[in-house]
Design goal:
Blueprint lengths: L9 E3 L5 E3 L1 E16 H7 L2 H4 L3 E2 L1 E3 L2 E13 L5 E11 L5 H9 L2 E11 L2 H11 L3 E3 L1 E7 L2 E7 L7 E6 L8 E11 L2 E18 L4 E5 L3 H8 L8 E12 L3 E2 L4
Parallel strand pairs: 8-9, 8-13
Antiparallel strand pairs: 1-2, 3-6, 3-16, 4-7, 5-6, 6-7, 7-8, 10-11, 11-12, 12-15, 13-14, 14-16, 14-17
Amino acid sequence: MAFLDSVARHPSAALGGQPVPLRLASLAAMAAVFSADADVARALLPAASAALLQPLVWRPGRCLLGVVAVRYAEGDLGAYDELALVLPVGRGPLPRLRALRALLCARFEAFIWQMPVTTERAREGGVRLAGFPKWVAELRCGEHAGWLRCALHEGDAEPALALSCRAAAGHGPPRELSLMAHTLLDGVPVVSELRLRQERWHELPGPGGALLSVGQGALADALRALRLGPRPLWTQVVPRAQALLFAPRPVHAS
């Protein structure tokens, strides 16, 4: 059975009868993980979520922050680009090795902190379905001189934030992963599964695979306050994938 047809779908009242899980039929993505100030990151969690979740601690005082850029070419929400800032989390403090294992395993959890997108349809669908912190923004994505780049612009000539990753053709075999995305829906902590089938992928542990530049603006200032490490701990490039986004459920029921 094809991946996108592997589960039954049911109408979602939040989306006006649109069947869920949402089918995201064609996408490409890149991601980089950096270290961050654990105390500052912990303060980003809403009180309702902070009572249940903890940032994954990389070493004393330092947690993890992921920057993820996705280009959706085809799917139930149409074509759009997305840039997400996420905090990998666990249920209580985790030591370094367990934190790394949780990050790299086939099912990991993250609190979705920021998620600018390029279309109103994508913004509305994500907000209504699961409380994703989406807003419509100008994202400029492309490839140049062997690097993939996604930049968030807020009216100025220089981007407020830009992620660049070394381009890679990727390899197989295809694999399936799950991201358990934590958000707030009407003030209630919920978790939504994004089930991903990566047709081709490339991973690079350690520095050298990505660059993150931080410019000016409120979001850039918030990133600087996190005292991000200058080099990535891990980078992933996914030239081709599909995904299913399931309806959320309360965190305590997950």
